[in-house]
């Protein structure tokens, strides 16, 4: 049994950190080519970071006992934004308890009830996309995914509170872009001052709005389909309801975990489709199976979290013939697994057909991580992607508006380098064209 860590590059930790941060995809591919797998990343100020890529090892990782690995501890940096009750930050019993409270709200069947709302918001957004000129879709997709979360998860109706939160929430999210946000000691020192002070004031404004919303909705007690309604009716094991603070923290968690991830995944979908006219043609005419296969392939080629939540070892664990001691961080190299030619032949080709013949494998398709930490919003995100891509395929032909740019890092996710810049033209058979021709026909004098 080997106790030594897998091989690592001899480059200083600072350079490894820069490589990992600036070129998240190319750098890990280079390490795999040089060192084989698993390998160890040495990141400045962080414990050794072991990247696993063997599906059997990943299975052991994702199914390990919760007392052995702590993903929550590694996510502590998010606490100023998501709050101390967030499911993302917790481990062991407390994690399971919050997760159980949230699961029914995000269940696939429950999500179906949000379809109408998501379709309406999508149609409205797509109506505003300009035709026949280059357009960056990523910022527009960010607006759409934000709107969908605010309406379907926070349960906000149109009105001044929605307007205020739409403006304020992204401000507290961008705090995570600042290097200060990565250092908890700096956060404490800067409390009340400068950029952190402004963040604290914005967060206080947001919290006031959210607590008022939760209070009103408790009073109303009406039946609704949004996630907030489900959280209001969820109960702990002892029958007590979730506290206002718990609900606030889980709503903001859904926003942090689900807004940028879905926007970037959709951005990558458009980036890929712009270069695959034959996939677009099939999407416009084929059924849901092909649409789902396309989404699975987009998430394989570009898992926006190139690794799921890193797991901190707190009790010795054996994986793949090696023993890992407490203090080491283990993670599944999702991007690398997705581009292993032994698992996905011709892995750099964008080919939805590969998912027509077989369903995504639990330990070989990892855009949503896995095990008891698997993304809670996976059904929500997949439904949203289905609705947006179906509506877009019916309306538009998407073309590239320039050479492909390499993916960029935004906080912990990757995003299309050129903001998903494409050119849209109207699909001849699309619903708009159909509506327009119907309108045109209506204004034509009837044929004699
Ligand atoms: C395409 C979009 C999305 C992707 C690619 C994605 C990906 C992920 C990944 C990789 C994890 C970590 C899983 C692990 O470590 O095993 C995660 C966790 C999580 N995601 Fe998502 N996510 C997406 C959308 C969403 C949405 C829309 C929501 C909520 C509305 C959401 C809520 C969460 C939550 C709450 C967790 C933490 C689960 C836990 O710790 O138990 N995600 N997501």
From TrEMBL:
Heme binds at residue 375. It comes from Conexibacter woesei (strain DSM 14684 / CCUG 47730 / CIP 108061 / JCM 11494 / NBRC 100937 / ID131577). Its cofactor is heme. The lineage of its organism: Bacteria, Bacillati, Actinomycetota, Thermoleophilia, Solirubrobacterales. GO terms for molecular function: heme binding; iron ion binding; monooxygenase activity; oxidoreductase activity, acting on paired donors, with incorporation or reduction of molecular oxygen. The keyword Heme applies. Keywords: Heme, Iron, Metal-binding, Monooxygenase, Oxidoreductase. Belongs to the cytochrome P450 family. This is Cytochrome P450. InterPro entries: Cyt_P450, Cyt_P450_CS, Cyt_P450_E_grp-I, Cyt_P450_sf, Cytochrome_P450_monoxygenase.
